[in-house]
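Field log, afternoon session.

UNIT: design team B
ACTIVITY: writing a sequence onto a fixed backbone
BACKBONE:
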């Protein structure tokens, strides 16, 4: 996983490209869409961002990922970022659904793209993230916890560090499934067998120009360590250190989420 202060050449090139600071973005194509790319944290945020920003008509707005904390403390900032988005710009977010936010996006002509992922993989990715990312408020605790303890904490939540119970997170985001202009399934973008079809569907939903050659080129370049925090995440071994009892609890707690987001238990 790429860490915050590791300026390797591939990462620097990707940062310049995704934020529109390269020759690829000097003149965005007329009529390029404005895009709001939203997901539950650890659901494939950066893979979808890469799928978007590797298209020459799109680039990320130079602003941090919009989060629940920003929405709660500075809602006017969220509104301003949406209102000032330019054609071709991508806003990246981890924001719970609200009818008001969805209406605001549509009123400003911003296309909504939502990424979903197998809840088991989200849990595994989150566990890896909090143990590897030293600035995470749970990092010190997480490194000394067993897999069962850490997954149990993810399921229960911890208000002291702003972590909601896992089942509540999925309920908070479920409304986006009905408001989105397009839903990206992380597993289809990740798999070489379905990646081209997933790219074609995404770009087609946004009405940006694409042909088989462009799709094939981006499909070959999509999965890259240059993208921050990206991990491919395999479902079967992802939670190998978790007991059957805690895994069963995860499936019971998230039974509604598995069904709603379209993943087999």
């Amino acid at each position: 996983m790429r860490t915050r202060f590791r300026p390797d050449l591939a990462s620097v090139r990707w940062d310049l490209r995704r934020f529109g600071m390269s020759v690829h973005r000097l003149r965005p194509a007329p009529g390029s869409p404005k895009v709001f790319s939203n997901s539950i944290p650890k659901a494939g945020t950066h893979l979808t961002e890469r799928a978007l920003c590797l298209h020459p008509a799109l680039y990320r707005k130079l602003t941090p990922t919009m989060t629940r904390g920003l929405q709660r403390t500075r809602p006017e900032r969220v509104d301003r970022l949406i209102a000032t988005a330019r054609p071709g710009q991508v806003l990246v977010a981890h924001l719970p659904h609200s009818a008001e936010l969805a209406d605001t996006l549509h009123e400003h002509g911003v296309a909504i793209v939502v990424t979903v992922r197998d809840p088991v993989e989200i849990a595994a990715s989150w566990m890896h993230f909090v143990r590897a990312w030293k600035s995470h408020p749970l990092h010190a605790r997480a490194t000394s916890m067993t897999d069962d303890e850490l997954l149990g904490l993810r399921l229960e939540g911890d208000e002291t560090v702003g972590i909601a119970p896992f089942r509540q997170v999925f309920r908070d985001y479920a409304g986006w499934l009905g408001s989105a202009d397009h839903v990206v399934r992380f597993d289809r973008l990740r798999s070489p067998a379905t990646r081209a079809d997933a790219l074609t569907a995404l770009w087609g939903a946004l009405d940006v120009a694409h042909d088989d050659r462009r799709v094939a080129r981006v499909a070959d370049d999509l999965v890259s360590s240059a993208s921050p925090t990206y991990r491919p995440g395999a479902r079967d071994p992802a939670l190998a250190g978790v007991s059957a009892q805690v895994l069963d609890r995860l499936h019971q707690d998230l039974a509604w989420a598995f069904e709603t987001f379209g993943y087999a238990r």
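LOG NOTE: The mean pLDDT is 89.
NEXT ACTIVITY: expression trials, pending approval
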